[in-house]
Design brief:
This protein is mostly beta strands. The protein is built from five helices and 31 strands. Strands 14, 15, 16, 17, 18, 19, 20, 21, 22 and 23 form a ten-stranded mixed sheet that branches.
């Protein structure tokens, strides 16, 4: 059986990498029981992720991430298929984010998915054998799966971030819009790739081949090797850039001078750098140099034309918004039944939080006069992105001792 290697980037300041070693049989079935020219599907936009509500196998309402960076559809919670007594046809070895961990996924077949008025029959997908991902910790929101491109790639997909609507259009009913810029895409293993220009802070201009990834909640991620001619900017901070299967991914965060997408130039975008060692097997990356995520894509109205390998885009009202970044130095994970237990995962060295004495393992009990139970993870992250100089008051729990901490936000990059 043909060996395949699969990499899914799925990020909100975190990363999921999954590499299947065996071909997964796809049985797309009828994508819709009734013929349609186009169909609109509402989505929820949380923490820069596109979330679709669906009904799984006619029984359970679930929430899946819409992910153009994933070829396959993945159920993260095996307990769902166990409860429904769905049989597993194959056990596949998968590779963790460290490229060494021995992890596994299971193949299920003949699944029915209903997404708004769209019906997908006889569908095959993967189920993680264990919840390696622990998505709720990194995002503070509940989802049960990742909806891959195999569901949608026969159509054109219009993404309207403002109205929070996906529109699927049959190719025979589409006419290229006159007020959009048209760019060429490379589509490989159902995933769209785009060439664009980056300009670094020292005026170095480089061309990069990037994955168009709606499953990524960041603006831009670039792969970096020490022997590369393209290196991180002079002003950057070390960061946990992602949570993957088997662990957290270390990297850097900084800013580029600008990025050019077709005729449009965006100044001062945030960029994450993932360091790849010399021993990393880059064939997993399918010749890409990084990914474009929702924090950048949401600045456009997009039409992804899979059949004709085109991307149509035009700026929307988000186009000129600045890219905000954390000014505290805190990296926090959410836990507990209501996802309101906030644990400090890491602290950026020499940041305001670090200088105030906050340490990994501290538990946030109060923030600026409000108990943790009244915050969400995204709410805390927004608080820590406020203007430089804003005072932050926290009460933390450390080894059974309650401590009060005060610091002021400042620009880190």
């Amino acid at each position: 059986m043909q060996r395949i290697r699969k990499v899914i980037f799925y990020t909100l300041h975190f990363l999921l990498i999954l590499a299947a070693k065996a071909q997964v049989p796809y049985i797309p079935g009828d994508a819709q029981r009734e013929n349609f020219e186009r169909i609109s599907i509402p989505f929820e936009y949380e923490n820069d992720l596109i979330i679709l509500r669906l009904v799984f196998n006619g029984a359970l309402p679930l929430r899946f991430i819409f992910d153009t960076g994933s070829e396959q559809t993945i159920l993260l919670k095996r307990e769902i298929t166990d409860i429904l007594n769905i049989p597993y046809y194959k056990r596949l070895p998968i590779i963790g984010s460290d490229m060494r961990s021995d992890l596994y996924a299971l193949v299920i077949r003949n699944i029915h998915l209903q997404i708004s008025n769209l019906h997908i029959d006889n569908y095959s997908m993967l189920v993680l054998e264990e919840d390696y991902f622990r998505f709720e910790e990194a995002s503070g929101i509940e989802v049960q799966g990742i909806l891959g491109a195999a569901v949608f790639d026969r159509y054109l997909i219009k993404i309207d971030y403002r109205s929070r609507t996906l529109t699927l259009i049959r190719p025979e009913h589409f006419k290229p819009p006159k007020n959009y810029a048209a760019l060429d895409l490379r589509v490989s293993r159902r995933k769209p790739y785009l060439d664009l220009s980056l300009q670094t802070s020292d005026n170095q201009t480089v061309k990069k081949h990037l994955l168009l990834d709606t499953g990524a909640g960041l603006p831009l991620l670039l792969h970096y090797q020490r022997d590369s001619s393209f290196s991180p900017p002079s002003t950057w901070v070390p960061a946990n850039i992602g949570q993957g299967l088997g662990g957290y991914l270390e990297g850097y965060t900084g800013r580029l001078r600008q990025i050019t997408i077709g005729p449009y130039t965006i100044p001062q975008p945030l960029v994450n750098y993932q360091f790849l060692s010399e021993n990393t097997d880059t064939s997993y990356l399918n010749q890409r140099d990084g990914i474009l995520g929702n924090q950048l894509l949401r600045r456009f109205d997009l039409i992804i034309d899979y059949p004709h390998k085109k991307l149509y885009l035009r700026p929307n009202r988000n186009f000129h918004r600045p890219f905000k970044y954390d000014r505290s130095g805190l990296i926090i994970m959410a836990g507990g039944q209501q996802l309101t237990r906030f644990l400090v995962k890491a602290v950026v060295p020499n940041s305001p939080a670090d200088l105030a004495g906050i340490r990994p393992g501290d538990l946030i009990q109060w923030a600026n006069g409000r108990p943790a139970s009244l915050w969400s993870l995204s709410g805390l992250q927004t608080l820590f992105q406020k203007r430089s100089g804003k005072k932050i008051r926290l009460r933390i729990l450390r080894k059974g001792q309650s401590l009060r901490v005060v610091f002021r936000l400042k620009d880190l990059i």
